[in-house]
Amino acid sequence: MKIVVLTGAGISAESGVPTFRAADGLWEGHRVEDVATPEGFERDPETVQRFYDDRRAHLSTVAPNPAHVALARLEAQGDHDVLVVTQNVDDLHERAGSHDVLHMHGELLSAWCLACDGRFRWDGPLLDRPACPGCGDQGLRPDIVWFGEYPYELDRIDEALQRADLFVSIGTSGAVYPAAGFVRSAHAYGARTLELNLEPTNGTDLFDEARHGPAGTVVPAWVGELVAG
Ligand code: OAD
Q: Rounded distance, CA 63 to CA 86, Å?
């Protein structure tokens, strides 16, 4: 079976990575327009670099949870063709062992040079304006897709949705497009659709089936069923 899995912040919540829209989420403590738009970066680059530097540094203190591990197990088991499309900018899918992962909103561990357009793996801070490894310019910014910017890999994602037998959405509120629209596309292309989330979302009615509970529990249970055949 060809499976496209869309993940959001909820899959990393039990690893200790904050979600965006919860009462104690990232967007409660920050104004989106200040830290997640190109205009915010132009106005106050230090605040934006500090925000992502802190989140990048925090990554080394967290680890994949059973939901990430279950998805890697599903891929490794080999009976199904599994593509993980993630809105997350952490690297927990990769650390759990998933190989086919698309980061549609960019990655904390990548820096993008505005001078030469190069992208470089980056695990240190950017606040101190380090030189670009490609061209030496000090114009590196977080390789994160901000509001008003175009997400990565949309063509490849759409092709995968066209071929998919099953579309599974895990831990995402469905508040941000285009990801929130994938369930409609998948359905229109003929895939079965499944939502796995802590609680019902605004989009729950769009899915053929929904199961609610913590990802660390419901994802391994679902993968267990699939692997057992
Ligand atoms: P949200 O914070 O909007 O939604 C997280 C979802 O995860 C909610 O529906 C929660 O109910 C659910 N959730 C929380 N804990 C969970 C758990 N333990 N198990 C399962 N589900 C759980 O985060 P996203 O939907 O990922 O974009 O947000 C989408 C995009 O909005 C992000 O990629 C980011 C943000 O603005 C950019 O920065 C471009």
A: 17
The span from the CA of 10 to the CA of 82, in Å, is 19
**For residues 126 and 52, what is the distance between their CA atoms, to the nearest angstrom?**
8
Catalytic residue among 30, 103, 105, 212: 105
Q: What stretch of H or E contains 93?
A: helix 92-96
pLDDT band per the 50, 70, 90 thresholds, residue 103: very high
Closest Cα to atom 14 of ligand 1: 10
Task: Please check whether residue 53 is in contact with residue 129, taking contact to mean a CB–CB distance below 8 angstroms.
Answer: no
SS3 85: strand
Closest CA relative to residue 120, chosen from 97, 98, 137:
137
To the query of whether residue 105 is one of the catalytic residues in this protein, the response is yes
Position 25 confidence tier, pLDDT thresholds 50, 70, 90: confident
Between the CA of 173 and the centroid of ligand 1 the distance, in Å, is: 5
Tell me the per-residue pLDDT of 124-154, one tens digit each, with 9 for 90 and over: 999 999 999 999 999 999 999 999 999 999 9
